[in-house]
Write a structure and sequence with these properties.
- The protein contains eight helices and no strands.
- Helix 1 packs antiparallel against helix 2 and helix 2 packs parallel to helix 5.
Length: 132
């Protein structure tokens, strides 16, 4: 497992996701996806709101040019929203919840993945009711 020490790293990843080629974007998101699999990395991933905004906007954008990169971004969001503490940092991204519901309705993924999306929708909805 990796332990993230530098927030600047995520600023650079955000720039690659925003301005890089499809291949660079996919590679950057895959690295972050690997990091997001360890909950030990979640605090550093969640403390950079610009990076989170980049990932959330990438997830919720209308047109997807790279399906792998898009799915990596979805996995990052789902991993970070796997606990209540992280959920609070996602509250400013109001467009994420409707996108997740739409994504759930459209996805043909397996039931375990759909269950994970449902759990995140419930967690995020509850957070809006509690902290809004």
């Amino acid at each position: 497992f990796f332990l993230i020490k530098e927030t600047d790293l995520f600023i650079n990843f955000g720039l690659i996701v925003t301005n890089g080629s499809d291949v660079d974007c996919e590679q950057a998101l895959n690295i972050v996806r690997q990091l997001s699999r360890s909950s030990r990395n979640h605090p550093k991933l969640c403390e950079n709101s610009d990076f989170l905004a980049t990932v959330v906007d990438y997830v919720a954008k209308k047109e997807v040019s790279n399906r792998n990169a898009h799915f990596f971004a979805v996995e990052i969001v789902l991993a970070l929203l796997s606990n209540d503490e992280n959920t609070k940092v996602f509250l400013p991204f109001r467009h994420l919840l409707p996108w997740l519901v739409s994504f759930l309705n459209k996805t043909t993924a397996d039931d375990a993945f759909k269950d994970q999306v449902v759990a995140v929708i419930i967690r995020l909805s509850t957070a809006y009711l509690e902290y809004d």
